[in-house]
Amino acid sequence: MASAVERTDEHVREYLIYRGFTSTLKNLDIEVKADKEKGFRVDKIIDQLQQFIQSFDLFGLKEYWLYLDRRLFCRLEDVYRSTVNKLRTSLYRYYVINTIQKGNLEKTQEFFQKQALELQGQAEWRDWFILPFIPTPEQNPAFSPYFSRQWSDTFLVSLHNFLSVLFQCMPQPVLLSFDAEVQKTTSLTEENEQFRQLLFAMQTESWDQREGDEMVHHKLPAYVQNMDRLGDTELDLVSSQRAVSTANTPSRNFFSTFLPQGRRTPGKMPQVTTGSSPSQVAVGRKDPSINQTAKLKEAVQTKEVKPVSSQASISEPLSAQSQQSTNQPTHPRHKRIQEHEKERKELFSKPPSQTPEKKGEVGEMEPPVEISSEAPDCSTLNSRSGRGGAEGGGLSAEQPFIKLSQEEYGEHHSSIMHCRVDCSGRRVASLDVDGVIKVWSFNPIMQTKATIMSKSPLLSLEWATKPDRLLLLGSGVGSVRLYDTDAKKNLYEMNIDETHPRILSLACSPSGSSFVCSAAALSRSGGAESSPRLHVPVSGQLLLWDTKTVKQQLQFSLEPEPVAINCTAFNHNGNLLVTGAADGVIRLFDMQRYESAMSWRAHDGEVYSVEFSYDENTVFSIGEDGKFIQWNIHRCGVKQSEQALPQDATGPFVLSGYSGYKQVQVPRGRLFAFDSEGQHVLTCSSSGGLIYRLTNGEPALESVLPLGGHKAPVVTVDWCSAVDCGTCLTASMDGKIKLSTLLAQKS
Fold it and tell me: Is-above-0.70 flag for pTM?
């Protein structure tokens, strides 16, 4: 119930802000701070009671208990009245025992003087009036149990459980019930989305299975598979004509039907081992990607063995058959052979894609398959890996992802700076160098929801966590805007600092109550964002703002000197904040104490991008020196792994054009993103995103899957995961954003 009350309070505050009821909002905040029920949080109520006891405030303790009695306990049925009385008695005894344990006998005597009229008629207090006059009450058998730690803990737990059950059983107002319905609807929506993704994955598997079934159905006809038996069957028919020389007869045997027209050779075919039937040779020579004829002849000539006595040689029936075809016989078996020969011609005249076969039917004389110099698409390899090990015999181990599809969002007309998915995974916000922001969805179809045009240059953006429809926009003139993507309007515009007008980075706390803002002075190159940054770091500030009151809470101390912070990231609960600065230093802040916990020099040059690892025991960073480094946050400045990346993954990014045109863009957005399990990382490249597997050894990264699809350098990436399907976003300097849908293959 406490969480529902807290969320409802947030909704009411948001509504009052929306309506402009500022005075009502102030009164609400005052009432909430003075709320004696502590938002129905039992732990807060227990803490308040203990605070009265520890400070010997008997009057405050009595008043607070009377308030709870009037507000909550009096509404209970009479059967629970005895329980309330026992809890009140134990509370007063807890107070008395605390005064004796702390050695404050004056407060002990004060309690019995003020409570004498109320307690002297109660049997459970009759023996307690002698307590102040006993020298060592903790050794007295009647009072010693109350001085034990076990009794006090049991009392506090009993009181906690009683209040918890009471709050759960209280009738809730409609507004709180509405919150419960919203949570239920949200959970059902998420469950439906999971089922939809699962159905999509199952459909993909069924398509692969169907395609595999079609491959099986394209087997060779029975007469081709049993071609060796056909030759044995016709031995008796052609034995009387063996004396005729095959050299004088035009060659129209089985092998001649498989050779190209210009390579057919008359005369007697060389002998081959009887272990390889004509059908096997034929199937082995069907691969159009190699020179079948030359390799086949070479293989046949190098394998001369003596024919087995129990079987007839292959050359004799072939020559006999060619002679009989010359004499045009009328025997029905000859007609059948001619029909078979005609069908074979039609069969092998089809494109190779229409007559696939399994390698299991290929004999030992099959020519080796040539490997193409062009690397195949990893997604294609993965999709084929389930169709039989023989068909993918040249492939490596199964890849962790299959690229199901790749779509393009092309509403931007200039280079992208930022591209981020919101917390729910339903919407994307993208910002280009012209200051145009597009808010769009990709599920079930790609559709633009809002377009934001800014007169002032924009440098950063970040989705709010609660509610997730709000978007934070940082400008180059010292202001941060809070934009409602549903209402399509600005809610607030906060002026940060005129001396530090460039808002380089924004990060919203997972709780949604605050956000961190990095403000920097104008660069020494005149503030141009398209040129590489100077190695002399500019001045900057790191500020914490309250999203509820829209006021600055504090300014973080940046040691050894104020410097521009390029990137920021929270951990999952918002207790830690990691930042990367222009001086190459990574700083880790404790957000409970609002102070720096540790800092270390991480890169030669600027730090471009930082993120927490999946287990949050390490931090990953990319810097101007082109290195991707993993740092242990429990041991300051200790590297766990290091990997050098190419320049197209770390920046500055260069786009060249005609007549010597060159566009240079320094990194602004996220340069890498992790999958849902933190085992793979997506980085930028010159032609699309590139997925690596994180390893524990050397090298630290192992290339897994190139996404491709871009004609310009990719400058920022993001990865949104749901169930087995993940969505990778890659944005490039030509304004194109590619949305790649991946299917994770579980091992």
Answer: no
